[in-house]
Write a structure and sequence with these properties.
By secondary structure, this protein is of the alpha/beta class. The chain has 2 domains: 144 residues, 3-Layer(aba) Sandwich (Rossmann fold), CATH 3.40.50; 157 residues, Rossmann fold, CATH 3.40.50.720. 42% of the residues lie in helices and 17% in strands. The chain contains 13 helices and 12 strands. A hairpin with a 2-residue loop joins β5 and β6. α7 runs parallel beside α8. The longest helix is centred in the C-terminal third of the chain and has 16 residues.
Length: 317
């Protein structure tokens, strides 16, 4: 049992693994001031990977019952928390129900609401650094390493009918455990996608190296495993060879980021475009803050640019 203390100010919780290390702890107060969220604060709740279901239920029940606890962003534990707490929520949005994950908890009209915001935020982040018509022009494939919530969200975005004509020629998903591969395959079937998708059991980094080597030029290689942030290491080995002109994207922006180091070692010879998780961080948090505090935060334009600038100034200024 955790001794949760009732909030005395409007409080947003961050449910993760090492929340104190996240930039959001210093960024949120600056954002709250800019957005007019009077007296609002953020608090971290840390759980080990794959915590006991009762631990997740206790946290969610506390947020539900405490008047000044307004909601939460959930990272790393999205799937485990959903499975443990789905009976606690009064409402589950369609994305969360399809993907069986919780990335945002909010309250609306006295009801506790479960959201999956990643399909929106991951799509916004990817589209921020890929030009319109990228896949149509290049014929690129997309390889996402890790079959958890982030990959589910990213592939949903890529498979959506509104992207018809500008979708990867093939999607590859790998994971170290068969269970998660079976689960994402089930979700993709429920989506009714017509895109070719390969599901690969990859218990060793060298297994992922072989997939990377098989990709077409200009393909997208994504670290969606949490390795480099929630746990040390990389899903690739140092011997990896990226396709020429490929885009290498780590969803992490903090940690040892070995995956990005491996890409940087090949950047010049393979003409790589390398992206970290910073823009994903911005979109992920602003989507949740908008939901929890019931305010409008546009995903682009002058307001979003100012929010991004504030975050940079706070963390890197």
């Amino acid at each position: 049992m955790t001794d949760y203390v009732p909030a005395t100010q409007p409080t947003l919780y961050f449910i993760g693994v090492t929340t104190a290390k996240s930039s959001i702890m210093s960024v949120f107060p600056a954002w709250a001031d800019y957005l007019g969220l009077e007296n609002a604060v953020i608090r971290g709740i840390d759980f080990p990977l794959h915590a006991a279901p009762d631990a997740y239920r206790e946290a969610v029940a506390f947020i539900r019952d405490d008047p000044m606890s307004l909601g939460a962003l959930v990272t790393t534990h999205k799937i485990d928390l959903f499975n443990a707490c789905k009976e606690i929520f009064d409402e589950i949005d369609p994305h969360a129900r399809l993907m069986e994950e919780t990335s945002c908890i909010s309250k609306r009209d006295g009801k506790l609401v479960c959201h999956a915001k990643d399909p929106i935020s991951s799509g916004l982040a990817l589209d921020a650094f890929l030009p319109d018509g990228y896949f149509e022009r290049t014929g690129a494939e997309l390889f996402s390493i890790g079959a958890g919530g982030s990959t589910i969200a990213l592939t949903w975005h890529m498979m959506h009918s509104r992207r018809a004509g500008d979708r990867p020629s093939r999607i590859v998903v790998s994971n170290r455990s068969q269970h998660r591969i079976d689960e994402i395959r089930r979700i993709h079937r429920a989506m009714g996608t017509t895109l070719p998708v390969d599901y690969v059991l990859a218990p060793q980094p060298t297994d992922n190296d072989a997939i990377v080597a098989s990709l077409k030029p200009a393909s997208i290689v994504i670290n969606a495993t949490g390795l480099g942030k929630d746990a040390p290491g990389s899903p690739l080995s140092d011997a990896v060879r990226f396709p020429p002109r490929s885009v290498v994207w780590d969803l992490n922006y903090r940690g040892d980021l070995i995956f990005l180091d491996q890409a940087r070692a090949r950047q010049q010879t393979s003409d790589l475009q390398i992206e970290d998780g910073w823009i994903y961080f911005i979109h992920g948090w602003t989507q949740v803050i908008s939901e929890v505090f019931h305010i409008d935060i546009p995903p682009r334009g002058a307001t979003f640019d100012e929010i991004s600038k504030i975050a940079l100034n706070v963390t890197r200024g």
